[in-house]
Write a structure and sequence with these properties.
It contains 5 helices and 12 strands.
Length: 241
């Protein structure tokens, strides 16, 4: 495929992903120093984010501009400090958002780095945020009679605490890090601001959350049905004896 036919998306310093643009436009932005060697670019052909200076077809254009006076310094500001572009796509419920929507939505998140065994939420505490698991594994548990009961393990791409966006009631379980993990936090205050200022972003996000909740309810109903069926079968077998 020719370079001029390739598409690119540019993660700009204003926290918005632009594109797709073709090779000529990207080269023009390099000449104008709107795209720097450390600017993140999504190469559609390869389905990968790379620093612009690492992309073969752009390297020569950065070399050609080395003699030009530097452009005014503008500090590149990733959507979330420390999180590489493209990493947010690991969270399935964010895939309902376009690149531009994701760029704006990310401004309402904050990153949390947690150590293994650190408790994220405690059963009974008031819910004040939902969390998206970006890296690592967290464990959902309850304590009954001083005995721990593990309810689920949540991996990268999963989320929890979503009910708190609607009802700041008590948490129904503990959640703690099973290993060092990275999470994205959406507080109830931030989400309220999002719904008021950008309802067009909140709607697809809530739709994706509801789809997942429906799947969980159906799975819970299925497990309950299987439990009741097994219990009744066991009772019938016992009565025969």
């Amino acid at each position: 495929m020719l370079e001029t036919q390739r598409g690119y998306k540019i993660w700009a310093v204003d926290d918005v992903v632009y594109g797709p643009v073709d090779h000529a436009v990207a080269v023009g932005w390099i000449a104008e120093q709107r795209v720097l060697p450390d600017t993140w670019i999504f190469v559609e052909k390869d389905k990968v984010w790379k620093a612009a200076g690492e992309i073969l077809e752009f390297k020569k254009h950065f070399a050609e501009g080395e003699g030009r006076p530097p452009a005014p310094v503008t500090e590149a500001n990733p959507l979330i400090a420390g999180i590489k572009p493209g990493a947010l796509r690991k969270v399935s419920i964010l895939n309902e958002l376009s690149d531009q929507q994701l760029g704006r939505f990310a401004q309402f998140m904050e990153v949390q780095y947690v150590r293994q065994h650190e408790v994220l939420v405690r059963q009974g505490d008031a819910g004040e945020a939902m969390y998206l698991v970006l890296e690592g594994v967290v464990r959902v548990r309850t304590i009954i009679g001083e005995k721990e009961n593990t309810l689920a393990f949540l991996n990268a791409g999963d989320f929890f605490g979503e009910i708190s966006l609607f009802d700041q009631g008590p948490r129904s379980a503990d959640v703690l890090a099973n290993q060092d993990s990275v999470l994205l936090k959406v507080s109830t205050q931030s989400f309220q601001k999002l719904t008021e200022e950008f309802p067009e972003l909140a709607t697809p996000f809530l739709t994706a959350v509801c789809k997942t909740l429906v799947q969980r309810i159906r799975e819970g109903n299925r497990r309950h049905y299987e439990f009741v069926r097994f219990k009744r079968a066991a009772e019938k077998e016992k009565n025969r004896d």
